[in-house]
Amino acid sequence: MTYLIAFLGAALAGAINTLSGNGSAITLTILMEVIGLPPDVANGTNRVGVLGNGFAASYGFYRNGRFEVTDGRRREMYQIVGITTVGAVLGVYLSLITSNAVYREIFRYLLIVMLGVILVKPKRWINVPEGEHFISRWLSVPLFFALGIYGGFIQMGMGVFFLAVMVLVARYDIIQGNVVKVVVVTIYTVLAVGIFAWRGLIDWPIGLLMAAGQMVGGYLTAAYASKHPKAGVYAYWLLVVVVLGAILKAFWPG
User: Where are the transmembrane segments (predicted)?
Assistant: First the structure.
C-alpha cells in the first residue's frame, strides 16, 4: 500500500509539475510522512522523481511541437537555462550546509504574495501575448539566478515562481512558459541528483518508483496540454488551486 501511494502520488505530482508547479509538496510529504525518510534524504530522493518527470514532460512537449520557436526566442531560452542552472548549483550546495527551516518559513509567506499576483488580472495569465517580448538581461540575470538558487535548494514551489516570471515578466504564454520551466528544471536536476547521490542522500528504490510515477503523469499531461485549446485556462486554475493548497498546508496548525 505504501508503494502504491508513492506511485500514485508521484503521478499526480508529475501532472501538477508539468502544468503549474509545487508537485514536490506532495512527494516530499509522502517521502517524509508516509515512508519516514529523514528530511535531507527525502530532499535528495525527491530529485530523482523530479528528473524523471522532467525527461518525460520534455519529450511530451517535443513530440507535440512545443519546441518549435523562433531563433530569437530559442536564444533567450538558452540564456534562461544557463543562468538558472548556475544558480541551482549554488542552491544545491546551500541545501547541504543549511537547515531548511528558515527557507520554509520564507516560502509560506511568499506563497501569499504569489496568490495575490495570480488572482489580480487573470487575463495576463490566460491570454496569449501578441508578438515576441524579450526580457532585458539586466532583469533576467538576477531573476533567473535567484530562481535557480531557490530550486537547487529546496525545489518545492520552484515551478510556481518560475512560471510567474515567465508569464508576467518574460511575457510567454502559460503553456510555452511551462515548456521552458520543464527544460530548466530537468537540466539542473541532473546536477542535483549527482551531488545528492555523491553524498549518499538518495533512497534509490523509492526514488526510482516515484520517478516512474512522475514520468507517467508528466508525459500524459504534456501531450494533453500541447494539443488542447483550453490548456492555458486549465493550467491557470490548476495553479490557483495548487497555491491555495500549499498555503493551507503551510499555515495549518501542527
Answer: 77-94, 106-123, 143-167, 179-198, 204-222, 234-252
pLDDT of residue 45: 93
pTM exceeds cut of 0.85 = no
Burial 186-225 (b: 16+ CB within 10 A, else e): bbbbeebbebbeeeebbbeebbebbbbbbbbbbbbbbbbb
Give the N- to C-terminal CA distance of the chain in Å, as an integer: 25
Q: Where are the alpha helices (DSSP H) in the chain?
A: 2-19, 24-29, 39-63, 71-97, 101-119, 123-126, 137-153, 158-164, 174-198, 204-227, 231-251
How far is the C-alpha of 239 from the C-alpha of 245, rounded, in Å? 10
Q: Report how far apart, in Å, the C-alpha atoms of 140 and of each of 12, 15, 78, 80, 129 are.
A: 31, 27, 12, 7, 19
Contact status, residue 14 vs residue 53, Cβ threshold 8 Å: yes
C-alpha 185/C-alpha 27 separation (Å) is: 16
Q: Which residue has the cell 529546496?
A: 154
| Backbone angles phi and psi of 237, in degrees to 5 | -70, -30
Q: How far is 162 from 180, CA to CA, in rounded Å? A: 9
Q: In this structure, which amino acid lies at residue 158?
A: M
* Contact by Cβ (8 Å): 32, 235: no
Cβ–Cβ under 8 Å, residues 96 and 154: no
Average pLDDT score over residue span 107-123:
72
